[in-house]
Amino acid sequence: MPLVAVLGSGIIGLKATEALVEAGYNVVVVSKDLPGDPVAASWASPSAGAVIYPTYTAKSTTREFETATFGHYWSLAHTDPSSGAQVIPVTEYFAEPYDPDSQAWYTKVKPYYRHSAPEELPLGIKDAVTVATVAVNPLIYLPYLRRNLEARGTKFSRLTAKSLDQVLRLTGAAVVVNASGHGAKELCNDAACTPVRGQAMWLRDRPRGWNKVLLCQDGGYTYVVPRLGTGGCLLGGVRQEGDEGDAADPALRRDILQRVNHLSGGAFKDVNLETDVDDVVAWRPGRDGGHRLEIQGPDVVHAYGFDGVGFAVSFGVGRRVVELVKQLTGGERARL
């Protein structure tokens, strides 16, 4: 099989690599950052909330990606908890009455779904739903993927790429999959790419017995995400489009904690912001007009611009990448 180079080792790059390897391709992964490296603001995947949850999109292809991805991680959580994937309840709160049609397609996929009663809602919240889904600990899962891929012969190489042609030349690959996230802005001269700054806090010791995800995207971007394999959880957050600041804003710490306590009924009221938390800052790889998933020329497949939903679509996107690579390499003929 032809050699394929995957540029980028975030969740999209790694799941594309996994899908390509399963399809029989030889793959080399090249990236400035590699699984196991220290967390950096410019590399979003290790800091992701990584909850497999719907985006309320009307796009049928994205719904297909999300549905396939949910099934994949649901199975993984049940068969291999060492992956960092866990089944967990998620409650999402809405500042306006909930439109069930916005999520109707997804409720058919979920094994559990419940609409909250009015007396259960925090002040100012008009609606809430709870589903069972999967949350992934990226700091476990990304190295887990790398180990599994290396065991199957995939090579990982550190490279700060200057161009896609450079990647093709240095690796000798027939095709490059560009999963470079926000790096595509310069590599592809893509002005549509825009960073979406996120700031959260890692709480080292979560309240005893706390094992659920809370989300609220109205009037802020608030979430609580426990991490499998730790006693802590991620408290967030914000969405600041176009902001590439990598320093934490102390005022946001207080704002985030206030919002989290409002949703949780004060479950985190004893958190000391000076001693109990570590700041987490990362830039989601946003793109005006949505992600780019397509062929360019005879040897490039683009797969970037998935903003904050990379984990939620990753398995489905990986399968689509294989389809595109097959178009460039001759598909089944490549096996002859």
TrEMBL record:
InterPro entries linked to this entry: DAO, FAD-dep_OxRdtase
Keyword set, alphabetical order: FAD, Flavoprotein, Oxidoreductase
Cofactor section: FAD
Pfam families documented for this protein: DAO
Gene Ontology cellular-component terms listed: cytoplasm
Domain FAD dependent oxidoreductase: 4-324
SUPFAM superfamilies: FAD-linked reductases, C-terminal domain, Nucleotide-binding domain
Domain of life per record: Eukaryota
GO function term, MF aspect, one: FAD binding
Similarity-based family: Belongs to the DAMOX/DASOX family.
PANTHER family: D-AMINO ACID OXIDASE, D-ASPARTATE OXIDASE
Protein name per UniProt: FAD dependent oxidoreductase domain-containing protein
Source organism: Knufia peltigerae
